[in-house]
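for the writeup, i need someone to sanity check this before i put it in the appendix. the sequnce is what the collaborator sent (i think, or maybe the updated version? ugh). structure was predicted straight from it, no edits. if anything looks off just tell me and ill rerun, i have time this weekend
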Amino acid sequence: MAEQENEKIVRGLYAAYLTADLATVLKACSEDTEWVAIGPPGRLPYAGTHRGPEQVARYFAILDDKEESDHLVPQEVIAAGDKVIVFGNYSARVNATGRKFETDFVHVFTLHDGKITNFRDFYDTAAAVEAYQSE
């Protein structure tokens, strides 16, 4: 039953994010959540580890300031134990360069008592870095 509830929570987070309801996303984070965006922080401004809802909010503020996403589609969701794994596709335009990139992603959520305690974002960081570079 917990797996089904965890999957429902995560699906709801995507729906909230896609309607710019960041408050719902942050409310789902535990006080000590660890939110990790893989990639070189010196080349991707949002990359790194963000701890707690305030830093997660900062992560989204940076992401929304630097990129304009036109496509975030979760394609497959797998719930197993305290993990929910989401396979999907993302594309965005980098505001500073005007360059676009597209990548498949794997998001791994860990939940405890209905709250996100850990999030990992795996994607094609090389494509993102390239889009952030000026030609």
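The chain has four helices and six strands. Residues 13 and 25 are 6 Å apart (CA to CA).
thx in advance!!
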